[in-house]
Specification:
- The chain is an alpha+beta fold.
- The chain has helices at about 5-10, 35-45, 50-60; strands at about 15, 45-50, 65-80, 95-105.
- The protein has one domain (about 5-105): 3-Layer(aba) Sandwich (Rossmann fold), CATH 3.40.50.880.
- The strands form two sheets. The protein has a two-stranded parallel ribbon with strand order 1-2.
- Helix 2 (about 35-45) links the parallel strand 1 (about 15) and strand 2.
- It is globular and about 40 Å long.
- The protein starts with a helix and ends with a strand.
- About 5% of the residues are buried.
- This is Ligase.
- Pfam families: GATase (PF00117).
């Protein structure tokens, strides 16, 4: 992961934490740098967490990440429910095959 200075030097408006093979409770699990939460709150930076990224954010904001009842791996169909820049030129109802791999869930 980057240092906080590396992030602040970029002066981002949006940060996306993606998924990966890690679990937030594992020893030496990747994490954002100290001071990150304060920085994004002070600057109004939008943060999107996907899979592991979401679990990391939830854990550090006081939520719970636990082993899910169902382990999910493989392809799944994603459907756009709301038009926004995140999906590029996709429209509501457009579908796309994506890969998912996770076993934990955020509460």
């Amino acid at each position: 992961m980057s240092t906080l200075k590396t992030i602040t030097d970029l002066d981002p408006r949006v940060i996306i934490f993606s998924g990966g093979p890690h679990r937030v409770h594992a020893p030496n699990a990747p994490c954002f740098p100290p001071g990150f939460i304060d920085y994004v709150q002070e600057k109004g930076v939008i943060v999107l967490g996907i899979c592991y990224g979401l679990q990391l954010i939830v854990q550090h904001l006081g939520g719970e990440v636990r082993v899910g009842e169902k382990q999910e791996y493989g392809r799944m169909m994603m459907e756009v429910e709301k038009t926004c820049g995140l999906f590029g030129n996709k429209n509501v109802g457009d579908r796309q095959m994506v890969w998912m791999s996770h076993g934990d869930e955020a509460a």
